[in-house]
Amino acid sequence: MPVGTKATVKAVPPSMLKELEISIILGNTYHLFLRPGHELIKKLGGLHKFMGWDGPILTDSGGFQVFSLTNLRKIKEEGVEFRSHIDGTKYFLTPELSIQAQDAFGADVKMVLDECPAYNVDRSYIEKSLELTTRWAKRSKDEWVRLGSNGLLFGIIQGGMHKDLRLRSMDQLMEIGFNGYAIGGLSVGEPKEEMYDLLTHLMENLKPDKPVYLMGVGEPEDILFAVQNGVDMFDCVIPTRNGRNGRLYTYEGRVTIKQARYFDDPEPVEKGCDCYTCRNFSRAYLRHLYLSNEILASYLNTVHNLRFFMRFMRDMRDNIKNSTFGEFYASFLNNYDKG
Questions:
Q1: Are 257 and 246 in contact (CB under 8 A)?
Q2: Which in 70, 105, 118, 285 has the greatest CB count within 10 A?
Q3: Which of these is catalytic: 60, 103, 114, 222?
């Protein structure tokens, strides 16, 4: 899922998202709650109409952004008090209000409010945070039921890097019952090997009959590993943010377009790529646009990156269907330069 933080996938209009075969995007409750506000979006017909996107939308709960404010928030049993990063206005976000906002947006997939602790906090804090997240998850579902809200509701598994706490969180959420289960609190500073080990352990214990969503993980090799272990859904700002910063993805690895070696390179970013950028423009031209700070650079680079990730996901699905995923996995890693 490309990230459309503020009701837009940065630099790319919805018509191009369709051409890239993107089927679902993510919106951010925290940012939309602050500006322009969920009441206004509801008044104007909901998030789909507001941003001109008729495909599914998943909205996060706002929790991750609120908890990343650190010095601007206070966590309480009822919810979290925080000050806007925009103007310092004080707000109080509860599980119920998060669901109400997502319902006002008309999101197709909604997330419960959770606390996402930092990687380096001690176990006792993680354990208390987990229990709070479970209580908030129950309140979120109760509000979702009360509203008769359309769409799906996902619970979020927390527990830091502690395997037993992760399993406890998973069991508690499954007892409440959700349409899908997200894995939060990874890719927050932990060593990659530690993330892989925890993810493997957790996926061995998750039921396969509901979708599993790994939040905020987006490098191709990480997605590949997670898919091998049974994860279904992903979101990350990597394709769009790195595109704007001149870092492009190919099946052979990453391309940093500002490098001098692309000064007169007549080739597309990636041979065989069917995106608008690769069909029409050279690496030399993209380098020129990027170094000239032209707006078009952000558009063309982002279009290519989004298409790469859609091709990558499609190829994984096809290989799973053909029972050749193991060969695809080995071939991709053998050819992909992570430098």
A1: yes
A2: 105
A3: 60
Task: Please give the structure tokens belonging to residue 268.
Answer: 């597309």
Catalytic-labelled residue, pool 103, 114, 222, 235? 235
Cα dist. 320→199, 203, 232, 326, 333 in Å? 20, 17, 12, 9, 17
Q: What is 3-235's CATH number? A: 3.20.20.105
Query: What are the residue ranges spanned by the domains of the chain?
Result: 3-235, 241-335
Secondary structure element (H or E) that encloses residue 96, with its range: helix 95-105
Chunked in runs of 10, what are the mean pLDDT values of the chain (339 residues)?
97 98 97 97 98 98 79 89 90 96 98 91 95 97 96 97 97 97 91 96 89 96 98 97 98 98 98 98 98 98 98 98 98 92
60 belongs to the catalytic site: yes
235 is catalytic: yes
Whose CA is closest to 213, among 245, 255, 185, 244? 185
